[in-house]
Specification:
The complex is a heterotrimer of chains A (229), B (251) and C (472). By secondary structure, chain A is of the alpha/beta class. Chain A has seven helices and twelve strands. Helices cover 33% and strands 22% of the residues of chain A. Chain B is 50% helix and 12% strand. In chain B, the strands form two sheets. A four-stranded parallel sheet of chain B has the order 5-4-6-7. A three-stranded parallel sheet of chain B has the order 1-2-3. Classes of the chains: A alpha/beta (229), B alpha/beta (251), C alpha/beta (472). Bound molecules: iron/sulfur cluster.
Chain lengths: 229, 251, 472
């Protein structure tokens, strides 16, 4: 496709839009209004359940996560590796996992769990279990927010059969808008990581007779370890 | 106040009009029936014939000029007046103002009785188990849902038993039922099964078009369900021959 | 995809006579609407959010050129590319060129209605590039060479047994030789087959639910996770989206997300909502090397500023078809093209021409259930009526209806004549129908009496005749 051709196509679409709207490119006050709206995005109607205080917020997150077919365990930081090994054993899963190369995860006391074999890196097609952190949890719907980057490959969220997520209580927010704020604070107003996956429970499909089956393409089990303190 | 009889009631079921008059008079209204009224214009409106619709609407606006309230025993005709007339005259501010004025004065019968007149009960008796179909325009344009049920609850001897999907369309749709008879039939067939499953001996609704459609299907299927307009039962005219059954009018 | 909207009436007959379809539809009619109702009830702010969702889309449409340019600027700044496609032809050409530029042999596709709209699969196949549908429903119908019958549940017309037969036919050569009977086994088998295809694919092609101008992100909402595999594993990610998908900010996305899943499936949230912004970054262990967004117009811009503009608010949730009694009777294929149900009845005449799709906006009772559930409050019956008006203006309305209307309109505007004619008709109908109380056949009313009786009026005259007698 030639550069000139694509410029003409661009002009054709934008011109057609402006003709239909009976105006030229936005200017003056109209332009200022949309610029201002982008610079300081207005929020929609407040959602009551997204505005709970601290302990209720965490409880609400757990409640909706379970509603959406995830399982949840609430433990202290020191007990995270034990909880994960216990979860794998309870579910007859192999004691081996691909883990996100994140300093926060690696700082946990894995040495205490000799049975567990960890591989650090991205997800591969044959992985059974992955362990990742999360950028945030959204109480409103029990949703996890994963920001991609060297410490959190996207493939770990998707390829394994079982996804175990370690989430700090302090990273649980009320609603989506707080996640956007945190993303802006972390990556800059106009920047984003390559991928932000917000994930609510395990993968599912209702495509056969509208009956929900878990584990369509992504994980069929999601276990969330909420870390207190 | 004025009664908008509606063309179907005029032609096929005059007792609905008299039931409406009786209910309104018992509530203390002085009811007039302006002689120049015909139809609200929906057949043309829903067929895309805007010019004819406007002509008819202008006539209706004229016919009901000056009455403090205009009441129709039909959610669909009342909805036409309240929700659609003003938009027909976007290029004619004077006429649009009159259409808006009519819209503000127009009401569906049961909602007028309950919401405007504050009626909470009627003095009527009907021996039977009834199920109530929520006709679409009344329900979704005018919010007619609790009003007829509220009044029916006061009818002696009547038990109301809801069907599974009272809010799903019966497949009438004015000219739709003859333009797409197969689809309409599938819809009314499903409605008929839902009515039968409710175990009622009487079907009530607030719109004659829907009632004729459902009565015709129930009768074709040989189901023993009596079909009546809700106004007839509320006015104590429940011994009229049901819709589509033989027997003359009592008047 | 070839339209059969012209033969709508024949399609209807076929649909009504298909027992498998009718079986599937009977489940759809109760399932989706009940789940949506419960989800709406769980969120007290739902109606306020719908108002806001409508306002956001209206604002975006009123400033569409600005937000598209803003979106492009952000994508480009992050190393992605935006391509503008005025027509379906342009979009097909752009995508094919992109695929060929890396010598692609297979494309992992996640469900995209816009890709259906432009007939992308046929085009790629003709060029020797294999498109692989990865959404389970789309995959099933791709194997069966059928079009989708629903915008969010493309295989909703099929039963489990039909799926089992299809899988046996196509998977046995891959070593899956047992005919399955359980849904979870069918899902597992499709997962295994498709997993390898994902790993092998050169290009991942997805649609987008929203394009966020503020960040240059494309936003995708799915339940299976197939779209995420499509945008993560292959070397190139192509997003295909139409112009009206752009919204201003992430805050706006939050509002739209809150109404989308609840309206579509009755879920609190879909399983995966993903924001993709540009290609793989330095240090990333996965992700595509190239990120392209193809923005398609295909006639949409000409709808702006007209009485039909509201249709561009659509967020493709499918609620209107889930609640439509006509869709519930005939399913999606009868509508004859990509978009079925009430939104199809307003969109198809726009995209294919009202001559082609003349039946669709007429095949509605205007029951209004679609409008009552649409998350962005599109006045679907009103838009269908506008199409009927255009058909009437262009004399596309069937002759018999035009003539009947003309006669009726003539009388309705002459109340005295009308009174005399109805009195006559009333007397005749009452007299002839006296014995039975109804008619089993009636001249000129064959459409009615083929399926139901026609109630006769009781004797005594019209209401107006009786009223005159009562009040002298
Ligand atoms: S028209 Fe409304 S209800 Fe129908 S798919 Fe679009 S957004 Fe959903």
């Amino acid at each position: 496709m030639s550069e000139a051709g694509s410029q003409a196509d661009r002009a054709a679409i934008l011109g057609s839009i402006r003709r239909a709207l009976r105006r030229g490119p936005l200017s003056g006050a109209a332009r200022q209004a949309v610029d201002a709206r982008l610079a300081d995005p207005p929020r929609g109607p407040a959602v009551g359940r997204a505005a709970l205080a601290e302990p209720e917020k965490v409880a609400l997150f757990c409640q909706w996560a379970e509603f959406n077919n995830a399982t949840v365990a609430r433990v202290a930081a020191a007990d995270v590796p034990g909880e994960i090994v216990g979860y794998l054993a309870r579910n007859n899963l192999p004691a081996a996992a691909a883990m996100a190369p994140s300093p926060a995860l690696e700082a946990l006391d894995w040495a205490s769990q000799r049975m567990l074999t960890l591989r650090h890196g991205r997800g591969e097609g044959a992985d059974q279990v992955s362990i990742t952190g999360a950028f945030a949890g959204i109480a409103e719907t029990g949703t996890l927010v994963m920001a991609s980057g060297p410490e959190h490959p996207v493939t770990l969220n998707l390829l394994p059969d079982t996804h175990i997520v370690v989430l700090r209580e302090g990273d649980i927010v009320g609603g989506y808008e707080e996640v956007w704020q945190r993303l802006r604070a972390r990556y800059g107003k106009d920047a984003m990581p390559r991928t932000v996956n917000t994930i609510t429970g395990p993968s599912r499909t209702g495509d056969i007779e509208q009956t929900i089956e878990l584990g369509a393409h992504g994980p069929r089990r999601m276990h969330i370890v909420v870390v207190g303190g | 106040m004025a009664l908008f009889v509606t063309c179907l009631v005029d032609l096929f079921r005059p007792s609905v009009g008299f039931a409406a008059v009786k209910l309104l008079e018992e509530a203390g209204c002085t009811v007039e029936v302006p002689p120049l009224q015909v139809c609200c214009g929906q057949p043309a409106y829903n067929s895309g014939d805007r010019a004819t619709t406007r002509a008819i609407a202008a006539q209706v606006v004229e016919a009901f000029d000056g009455y403090d309230a205009v009441v129709a025993p039909s959610g669909s005709c009342a909805g036409m007046l309240t929700h659609h007339y003003p938009s027909l005259f976007e290029d004619d501010p004077a006429m649009q103002a009159r259409a808006k004025n009519l819209a503000d004065r127009s009401h569906e019968l049961t909602s007028f009785l309950v919401d405007v007149l504050g009626m909470t009960k009627v003095a009527a008796r009907y021996d039977g188990v009834a199920t109530y179909h929520d006709s679409c325009s009344g329900l979704r344009e005018l919010g007619v849902k609790q009003q007829p049920r509220r009044l029916l609850a006061s009818v002696e001897g009547l038990e109301l038993r809801e069907m599974t999907s009272p809010e799903v369309c019966c497949g009438f749709g004015g000219t739709f039922c003859v333009k797409y008879p197969e689809i309409s039939n599938a819809m009314v067939g499903e409605k008929s099964a839902d009515i039968a499953a409710a175990g009622a001996d009487t079907l009530l609704a607030g719109d004659l078009g829907c009632l004729m459609n459902m009565a015709g299907k129930l009768q074709r299927e040989g189901r023993a369900v009596r079909v009546r307009h809700v106004a007839e039962v509320l006015a104590g005219l429940g011994d009229e021959a049901p819709i589509g059954e033989p027997g003359g009018s009592r008047r | 995809m070839q339209s059969t909207a012209r033969s709508f009436k024949d399609n209807v007959d076929t649909a009504l006579a298909d027992p498998n379809l009718q079986d599937s539809l009977s489940k759809l009619k109760v399932g989706f609407s009940e789940r949506r109702r419960q989800a709406a009830e769980r969120l007290p702010e739902f109606e306020a959010l719908r108002d806001r969702a409508r306002d956001i889309k209206n604002h975006a449409l009123a400033n569409l050129d600005f937000y598209l340019e803003e979106f492009e600027r952000k994508v480009t700044a992050l190393g992605g590319h935006v391509h503008w496609a005025p027509t379906a032809d342009d979009a097909r050409r752009i995508i094919a060129d992109l695929c060929r530029s890396i010598g692609a042999r297979t494309v992992a596709k996640s469900k995209s209605m816009v890709a259906e709209e432009i007939g992308l699969n046929e085009h790629l196949e003709a060029l020797g590039i294999a498109p692989i549908e990865t959404d389970l429903g789309e995959y099933i119908i791709q194997l069966r060479h059928e079009p989708p019958s629903h915008i969010i549940a493309p295989a909703v017309h099929l039963t489990k047994d039909q799926v089992a037969d299809t899988f046996l036919e196509h998977h046995s050569k891959l070593g899956f030789t047992r005919r399955l009977t359980e849904r979870n086994d069918l899902v597992a088998e499709a997962r295994a087959v498709l997993r390898q295809k994902f790993l092998d694919a050169d290009v991942g092609l997805t649609g987008a639910n929203f394009l966020v101008a503020e960040t240059g992100s494309s936003m995708l909402v799915t339940n299976e996770g197939n779209a995420d595999l499509s945008n993560t594993l292959p070397r190139m990610h192509i997003v295909l989206a139409s112009i009206e998908k752009v919204i201003p900010t992430l805050e706006d996305a939050a509002v739209l997300l809150r109404v989308l899943a609840r309206s579509a499936t009755g879920q609190e949230s879909s399983a995966y909502t993903t924001l993709n912004t540009g290609p793989k970054r330095p240090g990333d262990l996965d992700g595509p090397e190239q990120y392209h967004v193809v923005i398609l117009d295909n006639g949409r811009s000409s709808v702006l500023g007209t009485e039909m503009q509201d249709m561009l608010r659509c967020i493709r949730c499918g609620a209107c078809m889930n609640h439509c009694p006509v869709y519930g009777a005939i399913g999606g294929h009868a509508y004859g093209w990509v978009y079925p149900g009430p939104i199809g009845a307003v969109l198809t005449p726009q995209l294919l021409g009202v001559e082609e799709a003349a039946n669709l906006p007429n095949a509605s009772t205007f029951c209004g259930r679609c409008e009552s559930v649409c998350p962005v409050r599109i006045p679907l019956p009103g838009l269908m009526r506008h199409w009927r008006e255009r058909e009437f203006e262009r004399h596309l309305t069937p002759k018999a209806i035009r003539q009947g209307l003309a006669l009726w309109g003539f009388m309705a505007r002459r109340p005295r004549l009308y009174r005399r004619m109805t009195a006559l008709a009333n007397r005749l109908l009452a007299l002839l129908g006296r014995a039975e109380g109804r008619y089993r056949t009636l001249p000129l009313a064959g459409g009615w009496t083929r399926f139901r009786d026609f109630p006769a009026p009781p004797a005594g005259g019209t209401f107006h005749a009786q009223w005159r007698r009562r009040k002298p």
